[in-house]
Amino acid sequence: MNSIWNQRENNFDFLRLALAVLVIYSHSFPLGLSSDAQEPIFRWTNGQMTGGSIAVDLFFIMSGFLITASAERSGSVFSFLKKRVLRIYPAFVVASLLSAVVVVPMAAAHFAYNSPIARVGDFLLQTLRLVEFHYNSAFLTNPYPGAINGSTWSVSFEFWCYIGVALLLVSTLLRRRILLLAAFLTSVLVSVLFQLKGWIFGGKLLGLILGSPQLWARLLPLYLAGVVFYLFRDRIRLSHTLAIVSGLALVAACWTPIGWTALFPFAGTYLVFYLAFTPWLRLHRFGRFGDFSYGTYLYAFPITQLLMKHFAHPIAPWLLFVCATPLTLIAAATSWYGVERHFLQPARRKETIAHAIDS
């Protein structure tokens, strides 16, 4: 299929890293001031979203597109899942171990017998489930005590989405794009109803295995938006006018109750892929030295928490951001060169990351 959306010279690497850095900036407000109230995007959207929330949402949209492309090219479901496991788990395991053996001793008031290292069984189970661990004695003087890596909550949700794509692949439902379009539209409606009705439900066991239904109501429409965009890419054109209309729709959504929930899966999706594939940005070589976005996402929160432990409270968010970002990027580059790239397929290692769509 000859389409602008298929070109391998895209801007995904730049967008992913920019969004990961946006998470650092957004988290600098609650971590530095104990509240999102002064965060610019929180104020601009009248409390509907933060910069970090938008970044996570866009990660899920892009992932839906890229992972569906990867699934179509995979020789088998096993091959597809193997790539996904090797992309997610090694860096996550290393980051979790470093949090347990380095961050916790530096952050804890006392290193007790019930530390993450001592509770090996719980630690291994949480790591296997891609879930953040808490340590109550850590960061006691910080605005968010006990939180070691609050950003990683979304990783398990994304991995469940990978499993969902694998099920669509093995059942051949991935070829039935009208059915998936209907599923996407239904999920948006359910998400809006969750907001309107304030629904809260889900048993402890269900939440333990799959995660919060409330979070799924937010994230699933976004992931499906990326899936559907990929499947209908032959029917969607790259248009400056549509990009402007999408941007204006999101501006209007800021002053509309639940407007962001209703419009972002459509307007946000078009905008992010417009930016990813528009030729005027020409950032396709941005990732030639590596893909540092995942490492940035994994290490930003513990690094920011450690900085907060040594700063006087409260601290100006911009100062916290300026201090945390370079340290995080160094950790991310170390994660890429020391861990992540070694688990990619040999042929994939020889490509520049900017030319690869299934990282």
UniProtKB/TrEMBL annotation:
Regions crossing the membrane: 12-29, 49-67, 88-113, 153-171, 178-195, 215-232, 239-258, 318-339
Residue stretches in coiled coil: none
Assigned keywords, A-Z: Acyltransferase, Membrane, Transferase, Transmembrane, Transmembrane helix
Classification via Pfam families: Acyl_transf_3 (PF01757)
Domain of life: Bacteria
The UniProt record lists the keyword GTP-binding: no
Gene Ontology BP, a term: polysaccharide biosynthetic process
All residue ranges annotated as the Acyltransferase domain in the record: 11-333
Any Gene Ontology CC annotation: membrane
InterPro entries to which the protein is assigned, alphabetical: Acyl_transf_3_dom (IPR002656), Acyltransferase_3 (IPR050879)
Any GO molecular function: acyltransferase activity, transferring groups other than amino-acyl groups
PANTHER family: ACETYLTRANSFERASE, ACYL_TRANSF_3 DOMAIN-CONTAINING PROTEIN
Protein name: Acyltransferase 3
